[in-house]
């Protein structure tokens, strides 16, 4: 995602610590307390500018959402969107998904969204793909038993790789859609990338996988 320097980013982070949580690793195992309730927690990795998480939080007030985004100039845009929408069931973490086990305790999360993750098409970069087995091990640890992963992408290569990687890891594929927008799904909330790619006529893939 294109990153532009945002001169207001540091001030935004300082003024919105209730929304973009600083020192997030110290909250490991305490995320339910952070939300002040016992609702299930869904995590989106690589939240981008926040359109998906803001929409999902509005559509599902019975779920708590945590968005993780590495880029400061991008997470402040997500923060601004969540703030404008006045969602109280969203928290954002300016963190690296590689540190998931330091951010969440065992079984703390119910579901993980991977939306239009960077495809890392070169073979030598496979270990950076968010469905590489080392990431799947981390997901398995923080997800409750029978926890789920939901992946959307426009990238056929990443989709095919992920289907194989998820299956080989022992997850059950409970949904595989090769043309998400070809069928009516009034509940689908589009991400920024999804809107951009589907406007260009690109096919959108989605799969859902469950640990047993
Ligand atoms: N999900 C958004 C969408 O669909 O519009 C953004 C997709 S963009 C291709 C991928 C995003 O993931 C970028 O904003 C990038 O900064 C973020 N990202 C990449 N690697 C990450 C990591 N290891 N931890 C957290 N965020 C990451």
From TrEMBL:
<keyword id="KW-0808">Transferase</keyword>
<feature type="binding site">
    <location>
        <position position="69"/>
    </location>
    <ligand>
        <name>S-adenosyl-L-methionine</name>
    </ligand>
</feature>
<keyword id="KW-0819">tRNA processing</keyword>
<dbReference type="InterPro" id="IPR055361">
    <property type="entry name" value="tRNA_methyltr_TrmB_bact"/>
</dbReference>
<protein>
    <recommendedName>
        <fullName>tRNA (guanine-N(7)-)-methyltransferase</fullName>
        <ecNumber>2.1.1.33</ecNumber>
    </recommendedName>
</protein>
<comment type="similarity">
    <text>Belongs to the class I-like SAM-binding methyltransferase superfamily. TrmB family.</text>
</comment>
<dbReference type="GO" id="GO:0043527">
    <property type="term" value="C:tRNA methyltransferase complex"/>
</dbReference>
<keyword id="KW-0949">S-adenosyl-L-methionine</keyword>
<comment type="pathway">
    <text>tRNA modification; N(7)-methylguanine-tRNA biosynthesis.</text>
</comment>
<comment type="function">
    <text>Catalyzes the formation of N(7)-methylguanine at position 46 (m7G46) in tRNA.</text>
</comment>
<feature type="binding site">
    <location>
        <position position="44"/>
    </location>
    <ligand>
        <name>S-adenosyl-L-methionine</name>
    </ligand>
</feature>
<keyword id="KW-0489">Methyltransferase</keyword>
<feature type="binding site">
    <location>
        <position position="154"/>
    </location>
    <ligand>
        <name>substrate</name>
    </ligand>
</feature>
<feature type="binding site">
    <location>
        <position position="118"/>
    </location>
    <ligand>
        <name>S-adenosyl-L-methionine</name>
    </ligand>
</feature>
<feature type="binding site">
    <location>
        <begin position="191"/>
        <end position="194"/>
    </location>
    <ligand>
        <name>substrate</name>
    </ligand>
</feature>
<feature type="binding site">
    <location>
        <position position="96"/>
    </location>
    <ligand>
        <name>S-adenosyl-L-methionine</name>
    </ligand>
</feature>
<dbReference type="GO" id="GO:0008176">
    <property type="term" value="F:tRNA (guanine(46)-N7)-methyltransferase activity"/>
</dbReference>
<dbReference type="InterPro" id="IPR003358">
    <property type="entry name" value="tRNA_(Gua-N-7)_MeTrfase_Trmb"/>
</dbReference>
<dbReference type="InterPro" id="IPR029063">
    <property type="entry name" value="SAM-dependent_MTases_sf"/>
</dbReference>
<dbReference type="Pfam" id="PF02390">
    <property type="entry name" value="Methyltransf_4"/>
</dbReference>
<feature type="binding site">
    <location>
        <position position="122"/>
    </location>
    <ligand>
        <name>substrate</name>
    </ligand>
</feature>
């Amino acid at each position: 995602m294109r990153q532009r320097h945002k001169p207001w980013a540091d001030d935004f982070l300082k003024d919105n610590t209730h929304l973009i949580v600083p020192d997030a690793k110290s909250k490991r195992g305490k995320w339910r307390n952070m939300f002040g309730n016992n609702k299930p927690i869904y995590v989106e990795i690589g939240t981008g500018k926040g359109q998906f998480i803001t929409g999902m939080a509005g559509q599902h007030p019975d779920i708590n959402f945590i968005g993780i985004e590495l880029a400061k100039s991008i997470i402040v845009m997500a923060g601004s969107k969540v703030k404008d929408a006045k969602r109280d069931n969203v928290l954002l973490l300016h963190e690296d998904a590689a540190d998931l086990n330091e951010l969440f305790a065992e079984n703390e999360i119910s579901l993980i969204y991977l939306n239009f993750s960077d495809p890392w098409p070169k073979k030598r970069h496979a270990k950076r793909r968010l469905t590489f087995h080392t990431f799947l091990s981390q997901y398995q640890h923080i997800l409750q038993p029978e926890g789920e992963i939901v992946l959307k992408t426009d990238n056929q290569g990443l989709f095919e790789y992920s289907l194989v990687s998820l299956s080989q890891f022992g997850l059950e594929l409970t949904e595989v859609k090769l043309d998400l927008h070809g069928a009516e799904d009034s509940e689908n909330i589009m991400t920024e990338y999804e809107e951009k790619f589907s406007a260009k006529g690109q096919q959108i893939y989605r799969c859902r996988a469950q640990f047993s």
